[in-house]
């Protein structure tokens, strides 16, 4: 299971902060709710593309001694199952859907001049599909804004609240993905596990 790392700062500061296993150690298991602190369980690497960074970062993991499941502290600027950071996707979507720029122009605004147009289309499609759900979810934190459609309203609400703050609320409180969970995951963000068919 992934939870969001409560750290906000540069990537260099993040790399230093996660070296201390006690600083952000969860005091209980978010899965089984066991009340004892989790134990350090190493790291895993994941790739991340930000405006001035393209490489791998480490993500700290912890283990629950009760349910024997791991918890990963995903940095707030990263989205599960997507390589690009929240700020990069935010700038792209604002440029494309609010400002009406072309896919190439939006990619340039997001400091990704060589980004394939298919990636931009993928983000736009996922955001458009998720927009009405985002508006409904974010209405718990602010008054919905007048807009011509859900896509514009969702973008305005995200800008007003702040994209990372909105991502933190959606993911931590509702287990909701900013761009919608991939098809192979259930809405709570866990892999789907279907029981085996009984023998004939």
Shape: globular
Main β-sheet, in a few words?
4 strands, mixed
Q: Rg from C-alpha positions?
A: 18 Å
> Number of domains in the coordinates?
2
Instruction: Encode the helix/strand succession as letters.
Output: EHEEEHHHHH
If strands are numbered along the chain, what order do they take across the biggest sheet?
Answer: 1-4-3-2
Mean pLDDT: 88
Low-pLDDT parts are 191-195
Helix content: 25-40%
Helix and strand composition category:
alpha+beta
User: How much of the sequence is in beta strands?
Assistant: 15-25%
What's the total number of strands?
A: 4
Discrete helix count: 6
* Ends distance: 35 Å
What descriptive keywords fit this protein?
4-stranded mixed beta sheet, 200 residues, alpha+beta, 16% strand, 4 strands
Task: Provide a short characterization of the protein structure.
With 200 residues, the chain is of the alpha+beta class. The protein has helices spanning 11-17, 86-98, 103-109, 117-138, 150-161, 163-174, and strands at 2-5, 39-50, 53-63, 70-75. The longest helix has 22 residues, at 117-138.
Question: What does this molecule look like?
Answer:
The protein has 200 residues and is α+β, with helices and mostly antiparallel strands. 36% of the residues lie in helices and 16% in strands. It is built from six helices and four strands; from the N terminus they run βαβββααααα. It has a four-stranded mixed β-sheet with strand order 1-4-3-2, with helices on both faces. α2 (86-98) packs across α3 (103-109) and α2 (86-98) packs across α4 (117-138). It is globular, with a radius of gyration of 18 Å.
